[in-house]
Amino acid sequence: MRHILLLSILLILAPQTWAVVRVADLYEAQVPVADQGEAERSRALTEALGQVAMRVSGLRQAAQAEAIREAAGDAQRLVQQYRYVRGEGDALMFLARFDPRGVDALLEGAGLPRWGQDRPLTLVWLALQDGQGRTIAGADSPGPAGEALREGARGRGLPTVLPLMDLEEQNQVRFTDIWGGFHDTVVAASRRYGAEAVLIGRVDRLAADHWQARWTLVLQEREYQWKSGGERLEAAVSGAVDELAQILAGRFALRAGGPSGGHLRLSITDVRTLEDYARVARALGSRELIRQAQLREVGPNALRYDLQLQGDVDNLRRQLALSEQLAPVDERAPPPGGAAAAEELRYRLLP
User: Fold this and answer.
1) Which residues face 22 on adjacent strands?
2) What is the reported pLDDT for 187?
């Protein structure tokens, strides 16, 4: 019976792909073109590669990196497939998909980070004052500001969601809460979504051709604040998307040239049932960071196993912080089954 149980555990803990939100089209880009001629195709390939470099690295400046610009001259070798489609207003669009391994190698050679497909969800509370009224962008009624933010985030590979703004939320969060900076109220109302990050934006039309926005990002109990603006609403909102991508990539992307192939011992307590083991597997199944997980010990209500990483320990901690299943254990508490290894992370499975 014990052998059957251990086999079940090992099968459940085998490498899997689980995601906070899995972004499927990181290596694809769509560019408007005037025609299907060779010159336009060459230009579109160059622009598309720059877009993909931004999306995969999380950094806007990636498109202007010297190695990326040089590779753009021969972008054809990185393309897996391309085709022409019709976009909004029947506009002709060039759609290209690039080889993920080739792009990753290019970013590595350029010293740029690589941000995998599994990305944290950001809930966006967006209050707009445009001179005609005051509104909060909702999932069913995003308005021009919400649509601009959605489109910009999609282009950067950032999973975002707007609040439902149902009766419950209308009673919890009012326009003045967002506009007045009462973040505790807004964050409390955000818990129902399970989002890792909460972005709070206040967009104001100061003149016919001048928009200004103030942004606060709440991420893992830390706040980031910045401003953006422009002559058009879209410019003010796109400034938020750029900064959001920079911050999230800085937290979660694998840094080029950083430690890789490291080994680490990990222990997890409060694991009592097969369902608990399955939850552990979901929490640890990021292929972007964990190359291999080998079970070493199965103790009373605890697991201990070896990890082989392709990033550093701090990066692993940030990835585990995305999980709602695990919580770090106080290092002063006694380790399960005796003394802890020299380099051992200790977590517990949450109910």
Assistant:
1) 118
2) 94
* CA dihedral sign, ordered 57, 63, 65, 68: positive
How many independent structural domains does the chain possess?
3
**Position 310 confidence tier, pLDDT thresholds 50, 70, 90:** low
Are residue 221 and residue 296 in the same domain, yes or no?
no
Q: Is 57 left (phi over 0), alpha (psi -120 to 50) or beta?
A: alpha
Q: Phi and psi of 320, rounded to 5°?
A: -65, -25
Helix (H/G/I), strand (E/B), else coil: 221: coil
Of the candidates 225, 252, 279, which is a domain's last residue? 252
Residue 166 domain-assigned (yes or no):
yes
The domain in which residue 325 lies consists of: 258-349
**Residue-wise pLDDT tens digits, 41-70:** 999 999 999 999 999 999 999 999 988 988
pTM reported for the whole predicted model: 0.74
- Half-sphere exposure of residue 82, counting CA atoms within 13 Å on the CB side? 22
Tell me how far apart the terminal alpha carbons of the chain are, to the nearest angstrom: 26
Same domain? For 210 and 317 the reply is no
Alpha-carbon 67 to chain mean position: 24
Convert the pLDDT of each residue in 212-261 to its tens digit.
999 999 987 789 999 999 999 999 998 899 999 999 998 888 776 554 55
C-alpha to C-alpha distance for 230 and 234, rounded to whole angstroms: 8
- The reply to whether 92 and 200 lie within a common domain is no
Answer with the one of 109, 128, 153 that is the final residue of a domain: 109
Q: What is the pLDDT of residues 252-261, one digit of tens each?
A: 887 765 545 5
Give the type of residue at 34.
A
- How far is 283 from 4, CA to CA, in rounded Å? 23
Q: Quick one: 246 and 271 in the same domain?
A: no
Distance separating alpha carbons of residues 1 and 4, to the nearest angstrom = 5
